[in-house]
Design brief:
By secondary structure, the protein is an alpha+beta fold. The protein has a single domain, classed as Sandwich (Jelly Rolls). It is 19% helix and 40% strand. The strands form two sheets. It has a five-stranded antiparallel β-sheet with strand order 1-2-9-4-7. Strands 3-10-6-5-8 form a five-stranded mixed β-sheet, with no helix packed on it. α1 packs antiparallel against α2. The longest helix has 18 residues. The chain is globular, with a radius of gyration of 16 Å.
Length: 177
């Protein structure tokens, strides 16, 4: 299924990108991550990527917008209101994201129990930044929009959006270090 992609050549290009990712997902983790990173970097350089796409927004929070998905791969645009944040979480699938507009802060955590974690590091990710990880974990993180303007990130996940509601495996409670 291809959703929210504009028309014609854009839909074809999206299908080609997904086919390449789906094919590489059958190989090694390193090969898949390299292809996912290259695909996401290509998407990040397209200033028209979201032209004509009616993005949902959630005041005070973030909204997930499916751009396209097929073959166990889904691509989402996340629209972040100022101050919006995810829970502290890990993923049941591969997770790659890039900052398409604005900046986001990524905070990393270390698990100290089945669902408890402490913060270990954080970094502000600027427009154009791309990261990829496999669910070999622990890869616990939280994403926050620290700014006063809306931010948008593009996420490529290794899950079928028609089977799973999200990429999150476990949410963690934060404990003081």
């Amino acid at each position: 299924m291809v959703a929210a992609v504009r028309t014609g050549s854009d839909e074809s290009r999206a299908a080609d990108l997904l086919a390449t990712l789906s094919h590489s997902a059958r190989g090694s983790s390193d090969a898949y991550l390299a292809t996912a990173r290259a695909t996401l970097q290509a998407l990040m350089t397209r200033p028209d990527l979201l032209d004509g796409v009616a993005l949902k927004r959630r005041p005070g929070g973030y909204a997930r917008n499916l751009l396209f998905g097929r073959g166990g791969i889904s691509v989402w645009a996340m629209v972040w209101s100022p101050g919006a944040s995810t829970s502290v979480h890990d993923h049941h699938c591969s997770c790659c994201f890039g900052v398409w507009k604005g900046a986001i802060r990524e905070v990393w955590f270390r698990p100290i129990g089945p669902a408890e974690a402490v913060a270990t590091a954080d970094a502000t990710r600027m427009q154009g930044y791309v990261a990829c990880m496999m669910p070999t974990g622990p890869n616990l993180h939280q994403i926050v929009n620290p700014g006063t303007e809306e931010a948008i990130s593009i996420h490529v996940y290794g899950f079928d959006h028609e089977v799973h509601a999200s990429s999150v495996r476990t949410e963690y409670r934060v404990l003081a270090a």
